[in-house]
Amino acid sequence: MKIRYAFKGTKEEIKLNPNVGTLSWFLHRVTGLLLLFYLFTHMWVLGSANSGSEAFNARLQSVQTPLFHFLEIGLIMVIFYHMVNGISITIMDFADISRKHKTLVAISVAVFAILAIITLAVLIPRVFGAHSVPGGHL
To answer: Can you tell me the distance from the alpha carbon of 64 to that of 84, in angstroms, rounded to the nearest whole number?
Structure first.
């Protein structure tokens, strides 16, 4: 499957149904693709372990920078959104409460906001403050 087909019809769908559900659907697709990209990047770093500990440590060092620590916060936000929205979709499907979709979306947004605030409170000091990296690097 080509990536460009993942969003085929998206523009038309958003124009036809400009509502919260459509935005939620679109963001779920985008976060899914971002998670797929992260998975390949993660496997690239872990795959270097096959070349020995020096190669692994060198590749790991390349992603142990303040920029990548900042990007980790974005990754966690993407994971939380995708997870909360997926749980919301599952609840809607199994509980047959599609009529209460807007309420469920509001609850999902509140849960995501709480998780985001906790994440930011914990990780922002790590990004902008002094922190240690396993192995004493940095």
So the answer is: 28
105 touches 85 (CB < 8 A): no
Compute the distance between CA of residue 89 and CA of residue 101 in angstroms, rounded to an integer. Answer: 9
How many CB atoms sit inside 10 A of residue 53's CB? 10
Number of domains the chain is built from = 1
Provide block-wise average pLDDT over 10 residues at a time, the chain (138 residues). Answer: 63 71 83 92 86 87 82 90 89 80 84 91 78 51
Q: Give the global pTM.
A: 0.72
The parent domain of residue 77 ranges over 18-128
Domain membership of residue 108 (yes or no) is yes
CA distance 34 to 82: 10
Residue of 76, 58, 62 lying closest to 126 (CA atoms)? 76
Q: Is residue 125 within 8 Å of 73, Cβ to Cβ?
A: no
Residue 136 lies in a domain: no
Supply the CATH number for residue 37's domain: 1.20.1300.10
- Predicted pLDDT of residue 47: 87
